[in-house]
Amino acid sequence: MEDGDFNINLTIVGLGLIGGSYAKAFKEKNKGHIWGIDIDKNTLKKAAEMDIIDDGYSIENAQIPLKKSDVVIISIYPEVLLNFVRNNLNNFKKGAIITDTLGIKEDNIKYIQNILGDKAEFIGGHPMAGKEVSGFLNASKDIFEDANYILTPTAKNKKETIDFMGEFVKSIGFKSIVEVTPEKHDEIIAFTSQLPHIIAVSLMNLSNCEDIKYFIGGSFRDTTRVAAINSDLWGQLFIRNKKNIIKCIDDFQKNMTEIRNYIEKEDINDIKKFLKEAASKKEEII
Amino acid sequence: MEDGDFNINLTIVGLGLIGGSYAKAFKEKNKGHIWGIDIDKNTLKKAAEMDIIDDGYSIENAQIPLKKSDVVIISIYPEVLLNFVRNNLNNFKKGAIITDTLGIKEDNIKYIQNILGDKAEFIGGHPMAGKEVSGFLNASKDIFEDANYILTPTAKNKKETIDFMGEFVKSIGFKSIVEVTPEKHDEIIAFTSQLPHIIAVSLMNLSNCEDIKYFIGGSFRDTTRVAAINSDLWGQLFIRNKKNIIKCIDDFQKNMTEIRNYIEKEDINDIKKFLKEAASKKEEII
């Protein structure tokens, strides 16, 4: 076993874009078994044929891999995540670490840690990786390379578990592992992820496709890159993080109105000040 | 001479990111002379050393290359563009084609065609290419590869001139050449270029850099890619296209408010409808 490799029995629940990418990535870095659980039999069959899972199971047979798994990564929609945990409360291996991949944390984690008690340990995880397309067929281990990973431990998590999770995901390419509370996570992610997605769809929906096709440059292309998001998943994320998202939208609109009014008044000095502030913040962050 | 090559005496006024990139690109495709005019002596020296111009001239000596040039590409800020043409009215070669690279057209073109009379022919051109950085040192001939080019002819332009310009810029990599009136150009570009830039700076300015650094994924990075724009140039562009830009900002904010309100009401069906509309428009355009 090479340095940095693991020997863990791992179950991945939901072999979509993120779950499928995890399977591909961990297949190379983890010497233990990797099992997949999915509602789609074809996906399970395909993943087994590609040898990125050892075996695939339906939701109804989840107990078979769960009982043997040291780590369970659940990568499914918010609504089904809670059901899955509730329905499998007695199927997790004693002491197993369970994590998720969702872009919202606070409510889920409270609920899950509560119903799990000491049957298993749940720790929230959010890989800041993705693609503008979804599904297993688009999964790729490369999406994690140099990406950020957010851990959202609570007082119920052990220090060893937090450390383990950081090392585990670093092994597949994540660069920065950062820890915040679930509350803070939801507040920041509303700004750094959900707001840019709302901007993308709002801009896209304003367009008259026929008219603008040949007038597009890099800025429009970039701003709308994520405009074709999975509406089931993101609809749920937006509603579940509504308090933070609405604050972000309102703050953003206030900022936009500021520069709008400078332009209306032809106030070149304030426009330039606004643009320079953006430029210097950009240098600082990215 | 290969098929598609030209043999034209060309002067490029302003060797910044766009002008410098033109010089590099045409040096390979045009067998005639290429001269550069710039206020920065170092840029002229560097461009001559790199052999992408045959000679460089200060603004004061503009008449030397202009008198011999079949084509003049003026790639400088809106305010100085008008001055440059006015100060060189009698320096253009009879029948020369003069074009620009600016993101606003209507007012400039009216003014320039008016004062030029039949001394030379001005035709507006807008290369939909750029980079998030400016200046000659960042110039590259690759930025035009597969990009869109917009021509904004008026009743004062000859058909041969329009055709020539299309062929001339195709030779350096542009893929789609599209023609619209200067008025329509300004209206569409406010939406496809200036609005995304305003979005980028407004989003960037909202951020508290320290807090968000490790919470950034692809969507935030993409939406703010162009946030460090040249404040002198873009400040002028925004003010000169103010009528169209303000309409775009207002329409965009109305759209954003629509999805904001669906989220507030937890109206999952309308959110999903909104997201699906964006996804299908995205498929259609990009």
From TrEMBL, chains A, B:
Keywords: Oxidoreductase
PROSITE patterns: PDH_ADH
Record pathway: Amino-acid biosynthesis
EC number(s) given by UniProt: 1.3.1.43
Keyword hit for Oxidoreductase: yes
EC primary class: oxidoreductase
Source superkingdom: Bacteria
Cross-referenced InterPro entries: 6-PGluconate_DH-like_C_sf, NAD(P)-bd_dom_sf, PDH_C, PDH_N, Preph/Arog_dehydrog, Prephen_DH
Pfam family, one: PDH_C
Keyword Protein transport: no
PANTHER family, sorted: PREPHENATE DEHYDROGENASE (PTHR21363), PREPHENATE DEHYDROGENASE [NADP(+)] (PTHR21363:SF0)
Protein name: Cyclohexadienyl dehydrogenase
Lineage: Bacteria, Bacillati, Bacillota, Clostridia, Eubacteriales
The gene coding this protein: tyrC
